[in-house]
Amino acid sequence: MSIKKEENGSMRLRWPIEDIVAFAKRYAITHGLLCLIPDNLDQATIVPFSLYPSPYSYSHFKFIWSIQTAYNRLYNRISLDDEILEKALSPVIPLDDFVERLWKLHRNCKRRQSIQLDIYRNDYMLDTKVDKMRQIEFNTISSAFAGLTGIVADLHKAILHYGIENCHVRELKLDEKYEKSSTIDLILPNEALKKSAEAMIKAFELYNNENACILFIIVPNERNVCDQNALIDEIQKLKPNIHFHLKTFEQLTNELLYDEKTFNIYLKSSYDEIAIVYYRAGYIPDHYINEKCWLIREYIEQSRAIKCPTIRSQLAGCKIVQAYLTNENIIEKYINNKNLSKNIRSTFASMFAFDNNQTREKYINLLRQNPNGYVLKPNREGGGNNKYDDEILKLIENKENHLNSYIAMEKILPPKCTTCLIKPNGKHLLHVECINEIGIYGTMVTNVDTNEEYINDVIGYLVRTKTTDTNEGGVATGYSVLDCLDVSQNNNELSKIFSQEL
């Protein structure tokens, strides 16, 4: 999509920015860019978003888009290779009770379903030190916001129509030849939601029971209901007869039935057979409040239901596995195209672990000398778990430190831009310096017995923007806002327009 200058005048604000913010909030509310309020789950509020798209390099975006299907295949095959998984995870299994529990479950549960469904999100930042995209993490469980990211692109389109004079809109597609012009270009459509639904429908059809259901496992007091229900709505739009249940682990301790003869799982209340279990919970220890919850995970894992993800796929997304893949000749075992392997490797930031006694002190000294140059990441999802700057020094000096539970990643220096962040309760930040993190969604539906790939697709993107003084990056955890990209390379023109005084 592009916003094009008309021949009869330059682009300029049509209304005061306060009016444009009010319009944007109304659009967000009426189009479902919402989440529930923490203390009152009967009420909703807007999901934080940027007022206009952030400038970004089209060539860098297109590059990470082009390698996503290879990344899908890499992580799919890593998840099926117990030898590599065990080698990668071995430093943290003795130290991390959660990873150890998942690993033991994986090894003890016999696989009874050959169909594997994965919905991935591969997160990047552009590193200005080397002018390359660097991978932040590869998400294999609960890859959120596919249901909302498309709304943000449409929101920005509406804001630019409403708020800027002398412009018109067209879509810019990645498969088209890009010609630089004086326009402001946005990438549309963003089909993360539609193609996530198509992948889930394909897996459902391969389960081969049209009367079965799909189970979403969610956290208690779930706030991100609009994102999750958007996926349900999209599936039912394409396949109206599929029905759904949303349950927490604790609810399932009373409601899940496991048939030890057929290995099917059912819901007690309706006796619906479950074809797919889609995890929007289960990625941190707090989601398993007692042993009964762990037993539910075990029943599901050894059942015939298709899991998104399996435990092995969840483990493949651990940070220690990400670090292990940077070693020589690992990814080449799974990606036999030299150019693709090279392109994937080009996205690796410098990373190291602390399990090797021969290099441990060397790496600790690196952190002591330059704590501001690295981030320590544990094998945890959900935001708020990384260590930065002085926190790194405190962890090193702690006699009981568990450095083996972390991997160190060289800190990335992304380009800065100026934008406006719209947040609930009027806590807006106007004209602030920000950085962007780009997520590329991918889906895979495979038969792990035959290696057949029914679907291997790159399906959409997520943009999260945060102020430069914020380290963490989750929207659900309050650190970032949802955004879209202006790839026109017009020197942050939208920022200049929105800074105009009327």
TrEMBL record:
Domain Glutathione synthase substrate-binding, first and last residues per copy: 212-316
Entry's EC annotation: 6.3.2.3
GO MF: ATP binding; glutathione binding; glutathione synthase activity; magnesium ion binding
Cofactor(s) needed: Mg(2+)
Cofactor note: Binds 1 Mg(2+) ion per subunit.
GO cellular component: cytosol
Pathway connected to this protein: Sulfur metabolism; glutathione biosynthesis; glutathione from L-cysteine and L-glutamate: step 2/2
Residues annotated for ATP binding in this entry: 319, 377-386, 388, 409-412, 437, 466, 472
Residues that coordinate or bind substrate: 228, 464
Binding annotation for Mg(2+): 381
Chemical reaction(s) catalysed: gamma-L-glutamyl-L-cysteine + glycine + ATP = glutathione + ADP + phosphate + H(+)
Family of the protein in this entry: Belongs to the eukaryotic GSH synthase family.
PANTHER family attached to this UniProt entry: GLUTATHIONE SYNTHETASE
Name of the protein described by the UniProt record: Glutathione synthetase
